[in-house]
Design brief:
- There is one protein chain.
- Strands 3, 6, 7, 8, 10, 15, 16, 17 and 21 form a nine-stranded antiparallel beta sheet that branches.
- It contains three helices and 23 strands.
- By secondary structure, the protein is mostly beta strands.
- It is 6% helix and 35% strand.
Length: 340
């Protein structure tokens, strides 16, 4: 399943798709899901939409890759994105939604999902790396939230704008399983998901690795390869395009409610309904994250994404918060940002 964007779900519920043709102003230059502002929540590369921002330089440039291990011993290792000053060396990860349900506590990253009574479903958390990556190895030591049906935990490498993505995902109805998947240019082909049976993923930490190169990607669990994707095997004969993700991207972790999403396919995949009471809190944990860059990686001035057919271009949709998709939206002169 696609990684769910709660930000998109709320923004798209408040704005019509017809408003997407309008751009932001110089005072709130950065556009994200149809809303405009000037801080990192809107201007961070890959969250910010260049097409509907004020001009071509409004969105921040990608930071490039930094090899490092984050152990979440400091509260500065993950911060709310609105407080981010733009220095990736000071803050390794950013919590990209409001309210902020992510924190560094007891030497681990804690991702919480609480009950949203107004919508009868959970409101989770998403954190993204403050640096980008284009090829390299990422290892995360994760204990999932697969303690109840419907609860989804994610470890992904994603470019929000192009839709290129590599996944590890865990669903509550199958706690003794991890699923691997990848997406090319927002093409929603769910047939590429591969499950891997293992011990209860919510009971103990395991090391999960995505080793991404220009020619192949390998998924590993506790240093054991469980899947290999070769670029050569992704050729689309009809278009002559290798549908292999190559876009510069960010490492991200999340927890979200698939069981009460309202989308039948998502609910059947994750299990449903998700059990809730007013005091229920589901938690996923990340003990450490190690990013190993492939050679010297400098930030790109622009990122056009993966290979595309030379004779056509298609409009790219955005996630509507339930694993489905709909069009972007915006509103002139500036739509006041919602408080999530």
């Amino acid at each position: 399943m696609k990684f769910t964007s709660a930000f998109a779900a709320l923004a798209l519920s408040l704005a019509s798709s017809a408003l997407a043709q309008n751009k932001c102003t110089e005072f709130s230059p950065c556009s994200r899901e149809g809303y405009c502002d000037s801080d990192a929540m809107f201007c961070l590369w890959d969250l910010c939409d260049p097409a509907t921002s004020y001009n071509a330089t409004s969105c921040w440039q990608p930071e490039g890759c930094t090899s490092r291990t984050t152990t979440f011993d400091s509260s500065n290792d993950v911060i709310a994105i609105r407080t981010y000053g733009g220095n990736p060396q000071a803050n390794a990860f950013l919590s990209v939604f409001e309210p902020n349900n992510a924190k560094a506590a007891n030497g681990q990253l804690e991702l919480d999902m609480t009950y949203d009574a107004a919508n009868n479903k959970g409101f989770g958390a998403t954190v993204k790396a403050s640096t980008t990556i284009k090829y390299g190895k990422v290892t995360a030591r994760v204990k999932t939230a697969s303690v109840a049906t419907g609860v989804v935990t994610s470890f992904i490498i994603i470019n929000e704008q192009t839709g290129d993505e590599f996944d590890f995902e865990w669903v509550g109805k199958n706690p003794a399983e991890v699923q691997t998947n990848y997406y090319y240019q927002k093409e929603l082909d769910y047939t590429k998901m591969t499950p891997y049976a293992m011990a209860d993923t919510s009971a103990a930490y395991h090391d999960y690795t995505i080793d991404w190169t220009a020619e192949k990607t390998t998924w590993l669990v506790d240093n054991v390869p469980i899947r290999v994707l070769n670029r050569a095997d992704t050729l689309d004969a009809a278009t002559g395009v290798y549908k292999y993700p190559t876009s510069e991207a960010r490492v991200a972790f999340g927890i979200w409610d698939g069981g009460n999403s309202g989308a039948q396919g998502t609910q059947e995949w994750s299990g449903y309904p998700t059990p809730w009471s007013p005091t229920t809190v589901y938690k996923a944990f990340v003990d450490s994250v190690t990013i190993e860059c492939a050679g010297e990686q400098l930030p790109s001035e622009s990122e056009s994404g993966s290979e595309q057919p030379t004779d056509s271009a298609s409009e790219q949709p955005t996630d509507d918060g339930n694993g489905e998709h709909s069009s972007d939206s915006g509103e002139p002169p500036i739509k006041c940002r919602p408080r999530y």
